[in-house]
Structures are given as C-alpha cells and as structure tokens.
Amino acid sequence: MNLKSYILIFLFSFFWLPVFSQGNEPEKTSIEEMSKKRQDPVSGLRSVFLQEVLLPVADGTASSFSIQPVYPFKLGSNLKLITYTIIPFQSVPPLTPGGTQEGGMGNILFNGYFSSIQKKGKFSWGIGPAMQIPTRTNPALGSNQLSIGPTALLYLAGDKFSGGIVAQNYWSLGGNEDNKVNAGSIQYIAYYNFAKGWFVESNATVVVNWLASSDNQWLVPIGGGPGKTFQIGTKSKLFYSAGAQAFYNVVRPDLIGNWQAILQFQVIF
C-alpha cells in the first residue's frame, strides 16, 4: 500500500470506530449550535478537514490539498489538549524558465493547544507546541529538518459575530540554505452567522519567512466567502461544513500572484 492508503486507514480507525461504538444516544444538537461550536478552535470537537488551497506562483498555479484531523484529549478535570495535524499533498509549477513542475507529500504540521475545559465568559484560549515534521517527498516542497516552536490562540464567541487569532513560529533544528527554517504565521478568524447554519467567514493565514529578503518576507491575504453547516439525513449523528473563500494578496513575495482561493469541507463526528 502507498502512503495515502495508510493515512486513510489511520483516519478511519481514529475517527469512525468511536462513532460506531457509541452506545447511548447523544443529546440532539441543532445545526445552528454546531455551526457556532465548530468555529471555536478549542471547542473539543473531533473532526476532519479536507482543504484545497490554490495560489498563483511564477507562471503557473500551485495547489495544496491537505487532510487535517482534529482530536481532543482530556488531561485533567479542567485541562484538555486539542491536536491539529495538517497532512499536505502539494504541487508547485516551474519557478524558472525550463524548470519542471514538482509535487508530492509536503511536511506534516502539528499543533497542540492546551486549554481549560470549563469556559469562563465568551473567551477561549489555547497555548502549546508547534512542529513541522520533515515528511516531504520532494526537495522543492520544504525543509528536510525538524522545526519546532510555540503556538497560541485567542477566540471570542458571539451569537452573530465571532472571531479570533492564532499565532506561531517555527525554527529548524539545524540545516542550512533552503533547509533552514525561521518562519511564522498569523491566522485570523472571523465569522458572521445567519439562520439554518449559513455563515460568512474570513479565515486566512498571514505568512512570514524571516530568512527571505525584506521585500519578500510577507504574504498577506484579505478576503473571505460563504459557508454552511449541515446534516445529511434526519437520523445522522454526523455534521458537515463546507465553505469557499477568495482572497487578494495585498502584500506578497515577487514570485507569488495577487490572489488565492481556499475550498474546505469538514466532517464533524
């Protein structure tokens, strides 16, 4: 079996088997309640995101399809760990004339957020480790060094409007030239909720490469788009959410184009 097959088997056993083994019928959650709960990064929902990012690079379009399992662990009476793992499969167009398109599996990103179980007020928080694991199958898709650093988030929940911010930075443990890493990101999150699970979101990541030249360090997208949380069938215990966003890159490196698009589908267990 190839690597994708092992990943799919892992996701099946990690998420679906607990669903099949549930004995008692859980309390019924409305679509509106689930839509608001899924927007909180440390709410403790077990889910999987499927995400496609399209970004113009040089004379072509780069794509990154990722599988993103989210899994919570209870560590104490008022402490939990929410894990976010991003498993990317990427394609990059030729960066120079006569170059070739490169693709394969990229480096896996892991983020862990320690947070309180008992929420006080409308604010949620999380803090923990960020890790970039050198799993890339092609040298064009990232560093071959393990990179680690801190990550933290703050989120404000509301009835109609909710929003938050996630910040992190990675440093490679060794490496030189293209394999050396000192990079950070700031993800901004904003939602406006409507009836029946509909929402408008602006959810993107500002990226900075501290090792690049001063005029090529930042990528700053601004935009957003619609989405909806829903169920399939009246007896289903699963929820789903889908959204599409378009962004204008107000600041970008020389090789990056002025737009990007994000398509996302989430299964909530």
What does this entry show, briefly?
With 269 residues, the chain is mainly beta.
Task: Describe the protein in words.
The protein is mostly beta strands and 269 residues long. The chain has a single domain (3-268), classed as monomeric porin ompg (Porin, Beta Barrel), CATH 2.40.160. The protein contains 2 helices and 13 strands; from the N terminus they run H-H-E-E-E-E-E-E-E-E-E-E-E-E-E. The protein has helices spanning 3-20, 31-38; strands spanning 47-57, 60-76, 79-92, 102-105, 108-115, 123-133, 147-156, 161-172, 182-193, 198-209, 218-230, 239-251, 259-268. It is globular. The model is unreliable at 17-25 (pLDDT under 50). It comes from Flavobacterium anhuiense. This is Putative Neuromedin U.
Short descriptors:
about 270 residues; 2 helices; globular; Porin; twelve-stranded antiparallel β-barrel; Putative Neuromedin U; mainly beta
Just name the CATH architecture.
Answer: Beta Barrel
Helix content: under 10%
Number of strands: 13
| CATH fold label | Porin
Question: What is the total number of structural domains?
Answer: 1
Largest sheet: 12 strands, antiparallel, barrel
CATH C-level name? Mainly Beta
Radius of gyration: 19 Å
Distance between the termini: 27 Å
Question: Helical stretch count?
Answer: 2
Q: Beta-strand percentage?
A: over 45%
Order of neighbouring strands in the sheet with most strands:
1-2-3-5-6-7-8-9-10-11-12-13
Mean pLDDT: 91
Spans where pLDDT lies below 50 across 5 or more residues: 17-25
Given the C-alpha coordinates, what overall shape results? globular
Series of H and E elements: HHEEEEEEEEEEEEE
**CATH homologous superfamily annotation:** monomeric porin ompg
Could you say which structural class the secondary elements and strand pairing correspond to? Answer: mainly beta
Organism: Flavobacterium anhuiense
Protein name: Putative Neuromedin U
